[in-house]
Amino acid sequence: MWPFRRRVRGGSGRALRRTLLVLVVAGLLVAGFLLFPLGRYVFEDVRDKLGGTAEISPTGMTASASAPGHPATAATDSLTNKYWGAPALGASLTASFETPFRLVGVVVYSGVSKEPQEFRRGARPTRADLLVTTKDDKVHKKTVTLNDKPGKQETRLGISDVVSVQLVLREAAGQGEGRPIAVGEIEFFKRT
Q1: Could you say which DSSP state residue 74 is in?
Q2: Do 125 and 110 contact (CB within 8 A), yes or no?
Q3: What does residue 58 show for φ and ψ, rounded to 5 degrees?
């Protein structure tokens, strides 16, 4: 019967199928190449959120300037009633680390104390820049707004191969003569 007994030539459609297969493979390679950075970012972000964190201590703490009696090392001494005192805006605090790590978060305790009455007596930062340097000398900048209240203030990050973190003070509340801008404590967290 006519429609069921058609003769088909042996090579028909092979060239078209091969061409389509080559185009699909080429398209997948191009898409993979273009989407690799985004895919890696999403993968690392998921690992940050599902994995644990641990505090990491810097091997060195330096400041561009410090008020008398309030050195840079007071910002990492695990005590929030001792603080690094910046004499003016623009001063910076730099933490350096011996081995590169994945920085997932930074916690800042601003002010001279966690006690509300004491907190209001000193100057405290309200906005700062975090400059995170990686082992390939790239600098990642994040502007952080700090609430004008005592207690810890967390900033989530997700930066690999970190070797140093710099906190640059940009705005502060409660400034006055003889009142240094106080950063009670700064803590860094890595992915475990």
Answers
A1: G
A2: yes
A3: -70, 150
Q: Which residues contact 34 (CB under 8 A, 6 or more apart)?
A: none
Give this prediction's pTM: 0.77
Task: Give 120-170 pLDDT, tens digit per residue.
Answer: 888 999 999 999 999 999 999 999 999 999 989 999 999 999 999 999 999
- How far apart, in Å, are the Cα atoms of 48 and each of 135, 136, 143? 20, 21, 21
Question: CA–CA separation, 97 vs 61, rounded Å?
Answer: 9
At 13, phi and psi to the nearest 5? 90, -15
In degrees and rounded to multiples of 5, residue 79 shows phi and psi of -120, 125
Distance between CA atoms of residues 119 and 83, nearest Å: 12
At 64, list the tokens: 């561009």
pLDDT at 10 over 70: no
Q: How many CB atoms lie within 10 A of CB 170?
A: 14
Euclidean distance between CA atoms 105 and 178, whole angstroms = 32
Q: CA-CA distance, 157 to 106, in Å (whole number)?
A: 8
Task: Give phi and psi for 175, each to the nearest 5.
Answer: -70, 150
The letter for the amino acid at 71 is: P
CA-based Rg of the chain, rounded to a whole angstrom? 27
